[in-house]
Amino acid sequence: MKEIEKMTSICAYEKCPILAEPNHEFCVLHQKRDGKNREEIIDALEKYEQCGQKQIVGAYLRGADFSRVSISQKNFQYSDLRN
């Protein structure tokens, strides 16, 4: 039962409204992992959009592929966006 709960829990980052990745405690945006791909970024931003959130706090996007990703009307605060 605990595995099912873990797979469907909300991201552990404070005030993040989207679901954590399966078998992880954080969503894609808050996982400490370099080089996230374009599809992961688009999917996570769409989930934020569906929740009505515009401000994304503490995202870890170091080396992420932002090619052809539209991030208009998003506010990344205290986020790591380095290449």
Gist?
This protein is an alpha+beta fold and 83 residues long. It is 23% helix and 7% strand.
Describe the secondary structure blueprint for this structure.
Elements: H1 2-7, H2 38-50, E1 55-57, E2 75-77
Parallel strand pairs: 1-2
What topology, given as strand order, has the largest sheet?
1-2
Rg, Å, rounded: 12 Å
Structural shape: globular
Bin the strand percentage. Answer: 5-15%
Span of the ends, CA to CA: 39 Å
Mean pLDDT metric: 88
> What proportion of the residues is helical, as a percent range?
10-25%
- Count of distinct strands: 2
- Helix count equals 2
Structural class: alpha+beta
Question: How is the biggest beta sheet arranged?
Answer: 2 strands, parallel
Which regions contain 5 or more consecutive residues with pLDDT less than 50?
Answer: none
Give the helices and strands as they follow along the chain. HHEE
How would you explain this protein's 3D organization?
- With 83 residues, the protein is α+β, with helices and mostly antiparallel strands.
- It is 23% helix and 7% strand.
- It contains 2 helices and 2 strands, in the order ααββ.
- It has helices spanning 2-7, 38-50; strands spanning 55-57, 75-77.
- A two-stranded parallel ribbon has the order 1-2.
- It is globular.
- The termini are far apart.
- The mean pLDDT is 88.
What are its keywords?
single chain, 83 residues, alpha+beta, 2 helices, 2 strands
